[in-house]
Amino acid sequence: MVAPTVTACLPGAGSGAEWRGLAGIGGAGDLWHDFVMFRPLTLAIGLRYTRAKRRNHFISFISVVSIIGLALGVMALITVLSVMNGFERELRERILGMASHATIQGVNGGLQDWERLQREAPGLDDRVVAAAPYVQGEAMFSARGNISGAIVRGVQPEAEERVARIGEHMLHGGELGSLEAGGYRVVLGRELAAELRVRVGDSIILMAPQASVSPAGVMPRMRRFEVSGLFEVGMYEYDRGTAFIHLEDARAVFQTGEQVTGLRLRLTDMMQAGVVARDVAAQLDGLFRVSDWTRQHANLFRAIQMEKMVMFIILSLIVAVAAFNIVSTLIMLVTDKQGDIAILRTLGLSPGGIMIIFMVQGVVIGTIGILIGTLAGVALATHIDVVVPFIERVSGVEFLSADVYYISDLPSELKLSDVFRVGILGFLLTVVATLFPAWRAARTQPAEALRYD
Fold first, then answer.
1. Domain co-membership, 149 together with 284
2. What does each C-alpha distance from 10 to 5, 38, 98, 205, 350 come to in angstroms?
3. Which of 143, 145, 342, 364 has the fewest beta carbons under 10 Å from its own?
4. Can you give the residue range of the structural domain that contains 155?
5. Does one domain contain both 230 and 341?
6. pLDDT class for 49, splitting at 50, 70, 90?
7. Model pLDDT, residue 1
8. Cβ(113)–Cβ(261) under 8 Å?
């Protein structure tokens, strides 16, 4: 009479004594409380198995190893993605310290009526903050027997400060305001000045590719300039190959007449630079060639995105290996609980219910590891500027030497999208890892399992 009574109470809510009798089958204590708190029954049994004291301590050890492995993998993945985001942000800011968000140029190489366009551009779209004209050309600099080529950019100092942040990177000589029309002064990048071996106050010769006809024949245009300042952006491309002169001096040297090379725009949202620049150009009278900072440095940022994707895939394999440690834990647990599985099947629990019991255990183990790893990864990513210097002081090793790398501090930018993506990936791998052991448990034949009990 006992068996029918217990079977009848499985789908419903029998007496407390009957449920305590069923709980005693697996040696897991009082299941009535668990059933009330965690419905359905399979979820209650799975959670009970998870926190019950196991006779086989090796299974518990493997479970702890799985949790630690998952936590380390998730922490490493979140930290590395944050560091990659930090490097991308740092490069973007350094590039935009010299480059504008967008540029508008004439289709024939020169921009006519640029003063009117400079006044009208900010008023055409509220996303445009400022516009500044520039003249750009290639030239050779000569000083004390040293010769070096560079990109020379003629600017209006007051307008240029509104579209770029070059003033924030000045080392010596003050602001770009030291450039005056007709003063023939030049601001050099730090590496370019070192190559020419000049300092603030020295004179250098600028040789433009445009030729001048003289009694001695055709000669390159040369003009003496005074070094009025040095800047250091932190990117060799700019510090070694860029020089600034006043816009009027550049027009005289490169013989552009009333034209300028183009207009540089500063926008409220640099991520929409391409769209905004095209919208502004479409509203201006005439035909223009539009470019933005993402197009000018497309290869660099494409390489960074590719590197982030590759790092995500590689570190995801670490998370996958840790997640699949759960397989060995559950297989040993299934073997240890053969008798319990057989009795539950005899009492009427379906194979699907058996699968859910062991899937619950695997998911609980994985979820604990993912939560620990996420918290540790977020903490490490947000405090990496403190952790890395501490490791450097303790180990005596400098990871990013300022003599070799322009970015000597390890940057980090934590994004919630990356945290959610890593967490979801870890959870899905955990669920997949529980399927095979749970399927094996569901295939247990009660007669075979109870033969020797």
1. yes
2. 9, 14, 73, 95, 12
3. 145
4. 101-293
5. no
6. low
7. 36
8. no
